[in-house]
Amino acid sequence: MMVGAASDPVAEVVFYAVIGCWCIFLITFGLRARRAKSQETKRDRTAMAGLFLQSVGYFAVWLSLLRREQFSAIVPMPQFAEVVLAVLTVAMAAASVWLVNAASRRLGKQWALAARLVEGHDLISDGPYRLVRNPIYTGMFGLLLATGLAMSRWTTLLAASAVFVVGTLIRIRSEEKLLRQAFGAAFDEYARKVPALIPGIY
User: Fold this and answer.
1) What is the 3 state secondary structure string of the chain?
2) Any idea where the domains of the chain sit in the sequence?
3) Which of 36, 101, 119, 125 has its CA 20 to 30 A from that of 86?
4) pTM
């Protein structure tokens, strides 16, 4: 196998596996958005700016596919390293989609595209929320990285990741502001014990 060849079978498998994960992500996201409750008690519009930046990050890794040779490695590397990276990329994509769906299901009627509180809103701290306070965003970031490894140039992936992280931090700040207003010391205690996005890092 020639690394960087247009028909690299390893990269081709990764490409289609990530596409499959995206299909699952988009279908479940669409169904969940359709079922989302409409009643709101509070909504922070600042989070929409964060959502926009997250979308820009995703768009960038997809758009770079037009400039990168299809089914090629993101950087030249030995065959063994490429296989290992391929396995990790597919695993990351699958785990990320699973995490997003598991966390969204745990939220139930509280799930929403933008920051909001609903009637009878609960502070969720079990399931995926035992690991990080924002597991949906953790999964979304993992899917961005997997997508970038599958179809982007490394420079594009770095830039897209930076934009996505900024957008994510904006959304976290907006949403956690609402949660602090609603739950006070209970949320502060939860935030003290559980990291925001990545265990052991942030």
Assistant:
1) CCCCCCCCHHHHHHHHHHHHHHHHHHHHHHHHHHHCCCCCCEECCHHHHHHHHHHHHHHHHHHHHHCCCCCCCCCCCCHHHHHHHHHHHHHHHHHHHHHHHHHHHHHHHHCCCCCEECCCCCCCCCHHHHCCCCHHHHHHHHHHHHHHHHHCCHHHHHHHHHHHHHHHHHHHHHHHHHHHHHHCHHHHHHHHHCCCCCCCCC
2) 9-32+45-109+119-193
3) 101
4) 0.87
